[in-house]
Amino acid sequence: MKITDANNISVLSTIFTLVQPEALSLKFKVISPNCSGGEGSIEALVTGGTAPYSYEWNKEGETNSSLRVNEIGTYFLRVTDSRGCTIDATAEVSSPDALVVRPELAHSQLLWSF
User: Fold this and answer.
1) pLDDT, tens digit, for every residue of 17-55?
2) 0.90 exceeded by the pTM?
């Protein structure tokens, strides 16, 4: 096989192997905000495709692989690899489990002193 580039430089090869990367895959690590108004987060875990990746969240201006969240809800992410391949996914942020209070009555001793 003869390969010629834009500068008219050629190379001759009898073996030419095309390697296709693994398909893009996207998972999330979600930490819900706590009850007292704390911050939660969503971290995108991307594999496959060809790095580097770019990130586009449905939260305006957010382009990092992780997103800080203060509210429960569904968040959308589009990841694009360096070759223009994309994958879309949503992450669900739910409210933390409610606190459960179980009162416990303890008997106390009264000590009298005169």
Assistant:
1) 788 899 999 999 999 888 766 789 999 999 999 999 999
2) no
The pair phi, psi for residue 22, each rounded to 5°, is: -60, 155
For the chain, give the mean pLDDT: 87
Nearest to 79 by CA among 30, 27, 40, 22: 27
- Tokens at residue 24, please? 């893009």
What's the chain's length in residues?
A: 114
- Helix intervals (H) in 43-84: none
Tokens of 98: 């409610």
| H/E run at residue 45 | strand 40-47
- CA nearest 33: which of 73, 59, 70? 70
pLDDT value of position 19: 85
Burial 29-68 (b: 16+ CB within 10 A, else e): eebbbeeeeeebebebebeebeeebebebeeeeeeeebbe
